Amino acid sequence: MAVSTELPEAGSPQEQGTEATAPPPPGLRYNSPLVQVSLIGLVCFCCPGMFNALSGLGGGGQLDHTTADNANTALYACFAIFGVLGGAAHNLLGPRLTLLLGSLTYPLYAASFLYYNHRKSQTFPIIAGALLGAGAGLLWAAQGAIMTSYPPPNRRGSYISLFWCLFNLGGVLGGLLPFSFNYARTDAGSVNDATYGAFIGFMLLGAALTFLVLPPARIVRDDGTRATRVTYSSVSTEGWEILKLFTNWRMLLILPAAWASNFFYTYQFNNVNGLLFTLRTKGLNNVFYWGAQMIGSAGIGYFLDFGFASRRKRGLMGVAAVALLGTAIWAGGLANQLRYLDGEFPDKIDFKEGRRYAGPFLLYFSYGLMDAIFQSLIYWIIGALANDSQILSRYVGFYKGVQSAGAAVAWQVDTHKTSLLSQLIVNWGLCTVSYPLLAVLVLLAVKDEDYSVSNVDDGGKEKDAKMAAPSSFH
Q1: What residue spans carry the region label Disordered (predicted)?
Q2: Which end of the chain is more exposed for a tag (fewer CB within 10 A), N or C?
Protein backbone atom coordinates (compact mmCIF):
# COMPACT_ATOMS: atom_id res chain seq x y z
CA MET A 1 0.00 0.00 0.00
CA ALA A 2 1.40 3.37 -0.99
CA VAL A 3 1.99 5.92 1.71
CA SER A 4 0.60 9.35 0.91
CA THR A 5 2.72 12.24 2.10
CA GLU A 6 0.13 14.85 1.18
CA LEU A 7 -0.11 17.33 4.05
CA PRO A 8 -2.36 20.33 4.66
CA GLU A 9 -0.97 23.56 3.34
CA ALA A 10 -0.64 26.67 5.43
CA GLY A 11 -3.98 28.36 5.73
CA SER A 12 -5.94 25.18 5.07
CA PRO A 13 -8.94 24.36 7.28
CA GLN A 14 -6.90 21.84 9.21
CA GLU A 15 -4.26 24.36 10.17
CA GLN A 16 -6.72 27.07 10.93
CA GLY A 17 -8.37 24.90 13.55
CA THR A 18 -11.62 24.02 11.74
CA GLU A 19 -12.95 20.64 10.75
CA ALA A 20 -11.72 19.22 7.46
CA THR A 21 -14.31 19.67 4.74
CA ALA A 22 -13.66 16.30 3.09
CA PRO A 23 -11.96 13.05 4.06
CA PRO A 24 -8.31 12.76 2.96
CA PRO A 25 -7.38 10.43 0.09
CA PRO A 26 -7.50 6.71 0.94
CA GLY A 27 -4.31 4.88 1.79
CA LEU A 28 -1.70 4.88 4.50
CA ARG A 29 -0.96 8.57 5.05
CA TYR A 30 2.13 9.98 6.75
CA ASN A 31 -0.05 12.54 8.55
CA SER A 32 -2.54 9.96 9.82
CA PRO A 33 -2.88 9.11 13.52
CA LEU A 34 -1.97 5.49 12.72
CA VAL A 35 1.40 6.36 11.21
CA GLN A 36 2.27 8.97 13.82
CA VAL A 37 1.36 6.73 16.77
CA SER A 38 3.38 3.94 15.13
CA LEU A 39 6.31 6.32 14.77
CA ILE A 40 6.12 7.21 18.46
CA GLY A 41 6.04 3.48 19.16
CA LEU A 42 9.29 3.04 17.23
CA VAL A 43 10.94 5.91 19.12
CA CYS A 44 9.95 4.24 22.38
CA PHE A 45 11.03 0.85 21.00
CA CYS A 46 14.55 2.24 20.72
CA CYS A 47 14.75 4.40 23.84
CA PRO A 48 12.49 3.44 26.79
CA GLY A 49 12.14 -0.09 25.39
CA MET A 50 15.88 -0.67 25.49
CA PHE A 51 16.09 1.06 28.86
CA ASN A 52 13.48 -1.37 30.18
CA ALA A 53 15.50 -4.31 28.90
CA LEU A 54 18.60 -2.94 30.62
CA SER A 55 16.74 -2.34 33.89
CA GLY A 56 15.05 -5.72 33.68
CA LEU A 57 18.42 -7.43 34.04
CA GLY A 58 18.49 -6.26 37.64
CA GLY A 59 21.09 -3.74 38.77
CA GLY A 60 21.48 -2.32 35.25
CA GLY A 61 23.30 -5.50 34.26
CA GLN A 62 25.69 -5.30 37.22
CA LEU A 63 26.20 -7.92 39.91
CA ASP A 64 25.96 -5.29 42.67
CA HIS A 65 22.60 -3.51 42.50
CA THR A 66 23.66 -0.52 44.63
CA THR A 67 24.85 1.69 41.76
CA ALA A 68 21.76 1.04 39.66
CA ASP A 69 19.50 1.60 42.68
CA ASN A 70 21.10 4.99 43.36
CA ALA A 71 21.07 5.95 39.68
CA ASN A 72 17.42 4.99 39.40
CA THR A 73 16.56 6.92 42.54
CA ALA A 74 18.07 10.04 40.95
CA LEU A 75 16.32 9.18 37.69
CA TYR A 76 12.84 8.82 39.13
CA ALA A 77 13.19 11.74 41.53
CA CYS A 78 13.88 14.00 38.54
CA PHE A 79 11.26 12.18 36.49
CA ALA A 80 8.69 12.97 39.18
CA ILE A 81 9.35 16.69 38.69
CA PHE A 82 9.79 16.74 34.94
CA GLY A 83 6.94 14.31 34.42
CA VAL A 84 4.56 16.91 35.82
CA LEU A 85 6.34 19.71 33.92
CA GLY A 86 6.58 17.64 30.74
CA GLY A 87 3.04 18.45 29.66
CA ALA A 88 3.83 22.15 29.83
CA ALA A 89 7.05 21.60 27.86
CA HIS A 90 5.10 19.75 25.17
CA ASN A 91 2.54 22.54 24.93
CA LEU A 92 5.29 25.17 24.64
CA LEU A 93 7.83 23.36 22.45
CA GLY A 94 5.69 21.00 20.40
CA PRO A 95 6.11 17.22 20.20
CA ARG A 96 9.15 16.99 17.91
CA LEU A 97 11.56 19.07 20.00
CA THR A 98 10.19 17.68 23.26
CA LEU A 99 10.75 14.11 22.06
CA LEU A 100 14.23 14.89 20.73
CA LEU A 101 15.43 16.47 23.97
CA GLY A 102 14.02 13.58 25.96
CA SER A 103 15.36 10.78 23.78
CA LEU A 104 18.96 12.03 23.79
CA THR A 105 19.28 11.30 27.51
CA TYR A 106 18.74 7.54 27.06
CA PRO A 107 22.05 6.67 25.32
CA LEU A 108 23.88 8.76 27.92
CA TYR A 109 22.42 6.58 30.67
CA ALA A 110 23.47 3.34 28.94
CA ALA A 111 26.93 4.80 28.34
CA SER A 112 27.29 5.49 32.06
CA PHE A 113 27.07 1.77 32.83
CA LEU A 114 29.60 1.02 30.11
CA TYR A 115 31.85 3.49 31.93
CA TYR A 116 31.06 1.79 35.25
CA ASN A 117 32.20 -1.55 33.83
CA HIS A 118 35.72 -0.09 33.77
CA ARG A 119 35.91 2.66 36.41
CA LYS A 120 33.56 1.45 39.20
CA SER A 121 32.58 5.02 40.09
CA GLN A 122 28.93 5.77 40.82
CA THR A 123 29.17 9.46 39.92
CA PHE A 124 28.56 9.19 36.18
CA PRO A 125 25.64 6.72 36.44
CA ILE A 126 23.92 8.86 39.08
CA ILE A 127 24.31 12.08 37.05
CA ALA A 128 23.18 10.28 33.90
CA GLY A 129 20.22 8.90 35.83
CA ALA A 130 19.18 12.39 36.92
CA LEU A 131 19.45 13.69 33.34
CA LEU A 132 17.46 10.72 32.07
CA GLY A 133 14.77 11.51 34.62
CA ALA A 134 14.39 14.97 33.12
CA GLY A 135 14.49 13.61 29.58
CA ALA A 136 12.03 10.81 30.26
CA GLY A 137 9.57 13.33 31.69
CA LEU A 138 9.66 15.22 28.41
CA LEU A 139 9.47 12.14 26.20
CA TRP A 140 6.57 10.48 28.00
CA ALA A 141 4.51 13.66 28.21
CA ALA A 142 4.77 14.09 24.44
CA GLN A 143 4.12 10.40 23.86
CA GLY A 144 1.06 10.43 26.09
CA ALA A 145 -0.42 13.49 24.41
CA ILE A 146 0.00 11.93 20.97
CA MET A 147 -1.23 8.47 21.94
CA THR A 148 -4.35 9.67 23.73
CA SER A 149 -5.43 12.60 21.52
CA TYR A 150 -4.64 11.55 17.94
CA PRO A 151 -6.70 8.33 17.61
CA PRO A 152 -10.44 8.35 16.90
CA PRO A 153 -12.18 8.19 20.30
CA ASN A 154 -13.81 4.83 19.56
CA ARG A 155 -10.46 3.24 18.64
CA ARG A 156 -8.30 4.65 21.40
CA GLY A 157 -7.77 1.27 23.07
CA SER A 158 -6.53 -0.26 19.82
CA TYR A 159 -4.04 2.55 19.26
CA ILE A 160 -2.78 2.27 22.83
CA SER A 161 -2.28 -1.46 22.21
CA LEU A 162 -0.43 -0.74 18.97
CA PHE A 163 1.91 1.64 20.73
CA TRP A 164 2.40 -0.71 23.67
CA CYS A 165 3.28 -3.61 21.36
CA LEU A 166 5.86 -1.58 19.42
CA PHE A 167 7.31 -0.11 22.61
CA ASN A 168 7.63 -3.48 24.31
CA LEU A 169 9.09 -5.08 21.22
CA GLY A 170 12.12 -3.02 22.21
CA GLY A 171 12.19 -4.83 25.53
CA VAL A 172 11.91 -8.17 23.72
CA LEU A 173 14.82 -7.43 21.39
CA GLY A 174 16.68 -5.77 24.23
CA GLY A 175 16.33 -8.98 26.24
CA LEU A 176 17.86 -10.98 23.40
CA LEU A 177 20.97 -8.77 23.38
CA PRO A 178 22.31 -9.75 26.83
CA PHE A 179 21.11 -13.32 26.29
CA SER A 180 23.12 -13.70 23.08
CA PHE A 181 26.17 -11.63 24.06
CA ASN A 182 26.53 -13.37 27.42
CA TYR A 183 25.30 -16.86 26.55
CA ALA A 184 28.63 -18.58 27.19
CA ARG A 185 29.42 -16.51 30.31
CA THR A 186 27.53 -18.79 32.69
CA ASP A 187 29.48 -17.65 35.76
CA ALA A 188 29.56 -13.91 34.95
CA GLY A 189 27.82 -11.41 37.20
CA SER A 190 27.82 -8.33 34.95
CA VAL A 191 27.09 -7.96 31.23
CA ASN A 192 29.92 -7.24 28.80
CA ASP A 193 30.77 -4.04 26.90
CA ALA A 194 29.17 -5.24 23.65
CA THR A 195 25.79 -5.43 25.40
CA TYR A 196 25.96 -1.81 26.51
CA GLY A 197 27.22 -0.76 23.07
CA ALA A 198 24.21 -2.36 21.39
CA PHE A 199 21.84 -0.57 23.76
CA ILE A 200 23.52 2.77 23.01
CA GLY A 201 23.22 2.22 19.26
CA PHE A 202 19.48 1.54 19.39
CA MET A 203 18.88 4.53 21.66
CA LEU A 204 20.68 6.88 19.26
CA LEU A 205 18.51 5.55 16.44
CA GLY A 206 15.42 6.37 18.49
CA ALA A 207 16.60 9.95 18.96
CA ALA A 208 17.06 10.28 15.19
CA LEU A 209 13.51 9.03 14.53
CA THR A 210 12.02 11.97 16.44
CA PHE A 211 12.81 14.23 13.46
CA LEU A 212 10.07 12.41 11.53
CA VAL A 213 7.31 13.37 13.99
CA LEU A 214 4.79 15.85 12.56
CA PRO A 215 3.28 18.81 14.45
CA PRO A 216 -0.29 18.32 15.72
CA ALA A 217 -1.64 20.84 13.20
CA ARG A 218 -0.97 18.41 10.39
CA ILE A 219 -2.64 15.30 11.81
CA VAL A 220 -5.93 14.41 10.11
CA ARG A 221 -8.07 11.36 10.81
CA ASP A 222 -9.52 9.18 8.08
CA ASP A 223 -12.94 10.84 8.37
CA GLY A 224 -11.37 14.24 7.73
CA THR A 225 -11.59 15.53 11.30
CA ARG A 226 -8.66 17.17 12.98
CA ALA A 227 -7.01 14.96 15.58
CA THR A 228 -6.75 17.72 18.18
CA ARG A 229 -7.20 21.40 18.81
CA VAL A 230 -4.21 23.50 17.81
CA THR A 231 -3.67 26.38 20.19
CA TYR A 232 -0.37 27.30 21.76
CA SER A 233 0.26 28.18 25.33
CA SER A 234 2.34 30.45 27.52
CA VAL A 235 4.57 29.75 30.50
CA SER A 236 2.18 31.48 32.90
CA THR A 237 -0.81 29.53 31.59
CA GLU A 238 1.00 26.22 31.86
CA GLY A 239 2.23 27.00 35.36
CA TRP A 240 -1.30 27.73 36.52
CA GLU A 241 -2.75 24.66 34.79
CA ILE A 242 -0.12 22.42 36.41
CA LEU A 243 -1.01 23.72 39.87
CA LYS A 244 -4.67 23.05 39.19
CA LEU A 245 -3.91 19.38 38.52
CA PHE A 246 -3.22 18.80 42.21
CA THR A 247 -6.80 19.77 43.08
CA ASN A 248 -8.41 18.07 40.08
CA TRP A 249 -10.57 15.25 41.46
CA ARG A 250 -9.95 13.12 38.38
CA MET A 251 -6.20 13.20 38.94
CA LEU A 252 -6.61 12.52 42.65
CA LEU A 253 -8.53 9.35 41.84
CA ILE A 254 -5.74 8.24 39.48
CA LEU A 255 -2.99 9.02 42.01
CA PRO A 256 -2.80 5.60 43.79
CA ALA A 257 -2.75 3.74 40.46
CA ALA A 258 -0.05 6.07 39.16
CA TRP A 259 2.07 5.53 42.28
CA ALA A 260 1.69 1.75 42.05
CA SER A 261 2.31 1.39 38.31
CA ASN A 262 6.11 1.62 38.45
CA PHE A 263 6.58 0.92 42.15
CA PHE A 264 6.54 -2.82 41.52
CA TYR A 265 9.32 -2.72 38.90
CA THR A 266 12.06 -2.61 41.54
CA TYR A 267 10.76 -5.73 43.24
CA GLN A 268 10.16 -7.62 40.00
CA PHE A 269 13.45 -6.71 38.31
CA ASN A 270 15.88 -6.83 41.24
CA ASN A 271 14.32 -9.37 43.56
CA VAL A 272 12.68 -11.82 41.19
CA ASN A 273 14.53 -11.77 37.87
CA GLY A 274 17.74 -10.30 39.28
CA LEU A 275 17.92 -12.61 42.28
CA LEU A 276 16.66 -16.00 41.11
CA PHE A 277 18.25 -16.55 37.69
CA THR A 278 21.61 -16.84 35.95
CA LEU A 279 22.83 -13.91 33.85
CA ARG A 280 21.86 -15.34 30.48
CA THR A 281 18.49 -16.49 31.81
CA LYS A 282 17.72 -12.96 33.01
CA GLY A 283 18.01 -11.76 29.42
CA LEU A 284 15.83 -14.59 28.15
CA ASN A 285 13.23 -13.87 30.82
CA ASN A 286 13.06 -10.26 29.70
CA VAL A 287 12.20 -11.39 26.18
CA PHE A 288 9.10 -13.07 27.57
CA TYR A 289 8.35 -10.38 30.17
CA TRP A 290 8.08 -7.69 27.51
CA GLY A 291 6.49 -10.14 25.09
CA ALA A 292 3.78 -10.73 27.70
CA GLN A 293 3.22 -6.99 27.74
CA MET A 294 2.50 -7.06 24.02
CA ILE A 295 -0.07 -9.82 24.53
CA GLY A 296 -1.66 -8.10 27.52
CA SER A 297 -1.94 -4.69 25.88
CA ALA A 298 -3.43 -6.17 22.71
CA GLY A 299 -6.03 -8.09 24.69
CA ILE A 300 -7.12 -5.26 26.97
CA GLY A 301 -7.06 -2.76 24.09
CA TYR A 302 -9.40 -4.86 21.98
CA PHE A 303 -11.73 -5.38 24.92
CA LEU A 304 -11.84 -1.68 25.81
CA ASP A 305 -12.76 -0.76 22.23
CA PHE A 306 -15.15 -3.56 21.30
CA GLY A 307 -16.24 -5.34 24.50
CA PHE A 308 -19.58 -3.54 24.96
CA ALA A 309 -21.57 -0.85 23.22
CA SER A 310 -21.30 1.40 26.27
CA ARG A 311 -17.87 2.96 26.75
CA ARG A 312 -18.48 3.38 30.49
CA LYS A 313 -19.41 -0.30 30.83
CA ARG A 314 -16.26 -1.30 28.94
CA GLY A 315 -14.21 0.75 31.36
CA LEU A 316 -15.85 -0.76 34.44
CA MET A 317 -15.48 -4.30 33.15
CA GLY A 318 -11.88 -3.54 32.25
CA VAL A 319 -11.17 -2.46 35.82
CA ALA A 320 -12.82 -5.64 37.12
CA ALA A 321 -10.77 -7.86 34.79
CA VAL A 322 -7.51 -6.15 35.73
CA ALA A 323 -8.36 -6.42 39.44
CA LEU A 324 -9.10 -10.15 39.25
CA LEU A 325 -6.03 -11.02 37.19
CA GLY A 326 -3.76 -8.75 39.23
CA THR A 327 -4.91 -10.28 42.50
CA ALA A 328 -4.28 -13.81 41.22
CA ILE A 329 -0.78 -12.91 40.00
CA TRP A 330 0.23 -11.23 43.26
CA ALA A 331 -1.02 -14.31 45.13
CA GLY A 332 1.30 -16.41 42.98
CA GLY A 333 4.09 -13.96 43.75
CA LEU A 334 3.49 -14.43 47.47
CA ALA A 335 3.78 -18.20 47.13
CA ASN A 336 7.08 -17.76 45.30
CA GLN A 337 8.44 -15.21 47.78
CA LEU A 338 7.87 -17.53 50.73
CA ARG A 339 10.63 -19.74 49.27
CA TYR A 340 13.38 -17.18 49.99
CA LEU A 341 12.28 -14.91 52.82
CA ASP A 342 15.87 -14.05 53.76
CA GLY A 343 16.53 -12.54 50.32
CA GLU A 344 19.25 -15.08 49.56
CA PHE A 345 19.09 -17.43 46.59
CA PRO A 346 22.60 -18.73 45.89
CA ASP A 347 21.63 -21.62 43.60
CA LYS A 348 20.63 -19.59 40.55
CA ILE A 349 18.07 -21.04 38.15
CA ASP A 350 19.05 -21.57 34.51
CA PHE A 351 16.57 -21.85 31.66
CA LYS A 352 17.86 -25.35 30.86
CA GLU A 353 16.70 -26.71 34.21
CA GLY A 354 13.19 -27.51 32.99
CA ARG A 355 10.73 -28.06 35.81
CA ARG A 356 12.71 -25.98 38.31
CA TYR A 357 12.67 -23.08 35.86
CA ALA A 358 9.01 -23.34 34.81
CA GLY A 359 7.27 -21.94 37.89
CA PRO A 360 9.42 -18.81 38.47
CA PHE A 361 9.44 -18.17 34.72
CA LEU A 362 5.64 -18.30 34.53
CA LEU A 363 5.40 -15.89 37.46
CA TYR A 364 7.77 -13.38 35.85
CA PHE A 365 5.89 -13.68 32.55
CA SER A 366 2.64 -12.99 34.43
CA TYR A 367 4.15 -9.90 36.05
CA GLY A 368 4.75 -8.51 32.56
CA LEU A 369 1.18 -9.32 31.53
CA MET A 370 -0.19 -7.59 34.63
CA ASP A 371 1.88 -4.46 34.06
CA ALA A 372 0.63 -4.08 30.49
CA ILE A 373 -3.07 -4.46 31.20
CA PHE A 374 -2.85 -2.20 34.26
CA GLN A 375 -1.07 0.66 32.50
CA SER A 376 -3.04 0.29 29.25
CA LEU A 377 -6.24 0.58 31.26
CA ILE A 378 -5.01 3.74 32.97
CA TYR A 379 -4.02 5.31 29.65
CA TRP A 380 -7.41 4.42 28.18
CA ILE A 381 -9.19 6.05 31.11
CA ILE A 382 -7.04 9.19 30.83
CA GLY A 383 -7.73 9.34 27.11
CA ALA A 384 -11.47 9.10 27.78
CA LEU A 385 -11.37 12.19 30.00
CA ALA A 386 -10.67 14.61 27.11
CA ASN A 387 -9.65 14.75 23.45
CA ASP A 388 -7.59 17.94 23.58
CA SER A 389 -3.84 17.19 23.37
CA GLN A 390 -2.98 20.10 25.67
CA ILE A 391 -5.24 18.85 28.45
CA LEU A 392 -4.16 15.26 27.91
CA SER A 393 -0.46 16.16 27.92
CA ARG A 394 -0.96 17.67 31.38
CA TYR A 395 -2.95 14.67 32.58
CA VAL A 396 -0.32 12.24 31.29
CA GLY A 397 2.44 14.42 32.75
CA PHE A 398 0.77 14.27 36.15
CA TYR A 399 0.39 10.50 35.84
CA LYS A 400 4.04 10.02 34.86
CA GLY A 401 5.23 12.40 37.56
CA VAL A 402 3.40 10.57 40.34
CA GLN A 403 4.41 7.24 38.84
CA SER A 404 8.05 8.26 38.92
CA ALA A 405 7.87 9.58 42.46
CA GLY A 406 6.67 6.14 43.49
CA ALA A 407 9.49 4.49 41.57
CA ALA A 408 12.10 6.75 43.22
CA VAL A 409 10.85 5.65 46.63
CA ALA A 410 10.82 2.00 45.55
CA TRP A 411 14.46 2.04 44.44
CA GLN A 412 15.53 3.47 47.79
CA VAL A 413 13.39 0.95 49.63
CA ASP A 414 15.40 -1.76 47.89
CA THR A 415 18.70 0.01 48.54
CA HIS A 416 17.98 -0.08 52.27
CA LYS A 417 17.50 -3.88 52.10
CA THR A 418 13.85 -3.81 53.08
CA SER A 419 12.34 -7.26 53.57
CA LEU A 420 11.30 -8.74 50.23
CA LEU A 421 8.05 -10.00 51.72
CA SER A 422 7.25 -6.47 52.89
CA GLN A 423 8.00 -5.12 49.42
CA LEU A 424 5.63 -7.63 47.85
CA ILE A 425 2.82 -6.88 50.31
CA VAL A 426 3.14 -3.12 49.76
CA ASN A 427 3.06 -3.58 45.98
CA TRP A 428 0.00 -5.81 46.19
CA GLY A 429 -1.73 -3.40 48.55
CA LEU A 430 -1.10 -0.36 46.34
CA CYS A 431 -2.58 -2.11 43.32
CA THR A 432 -5.58 -3.29 45.31
CA VAL A 433 -6.35 0.21 46.62
CA SER A 434 -6.23 1.64 43.10
CA TYR A 435 -8.88 -0.63 41.55
CA PRO A 436 -12.02 0.77 43.24
CA LEU A 437 -10.80 4.35 42.73
CA LEU A 438 -10.37 3.73 39.00
CA ALA A 439 -13.87 2.26 38.91
CA VAL A 440 -15.25 5.41 40.56
CA LEU A 441 -13.41 7.56 38.02
CA VAL A 442 -14.86 5.59 35.12
CA LEU A 443 -18.33 5.78 36.62
CA LEU A 444 -18.23 9.54 37.18
CA ALA A 445 -16.06 10.87 34.37
CA VAL A 446 -16.14 8.53 31.36
CA LYS A 447 -19.05 9.37 29.07
CA ASP A 448 -20.55 7.26 26.33
CA GLU A 449 -20.56 10.18 23.90
CA ASP A 450 -17.48 10.94 21.80
CA TYR A 451 -16.38 14.30 20.47
CA SER A 452 -13.86 15.17 17.80
CA VAL A 453 -12.49 17.81 20.14
CA SER A 454 -12.79 18.12 23.88
CA ASN A 455 -15.46 20.38 25.29
CA VAL A 456 -14.32 20.03 28.89
CA ASP A 457 -11.47 22.04 30.33
CA ASP A 458 -9.07 21.01 33.08
CA GLY A 459 -11.49 22.08 35.74
CA GLY A 460 -14.32 20.05 34.30
CA LYS A 461 -16.28 23.07 33.03
CA GLU A 462 -17.88 23.32 29.64
CA LYS A 463 -16.01 25.39 27.12
CA ASP A 464 -16.45 26.51 23.57
CA ALA A 465 -15.73 23.57 21.29
CA LYS A 466 -14.78 25.83 18.41
CA MET A 467 -11.06 25.54 17.70
CA ALA A 468 -9.12 28.76 17.53
CA ALA A 469 -6.67 29.37 14.74
CA PRO A 470 -3.07 28.97 15.84
CA SER A 471 -0.67 31.82 15.42
CA SER A 472 2.37 29.59 14.96
CA PHE A 473 3.34 25.97 14.52
CA HIS A 474 6.02 23.84 16.15
Answers
A1: 1-26, 454-474
A2: N
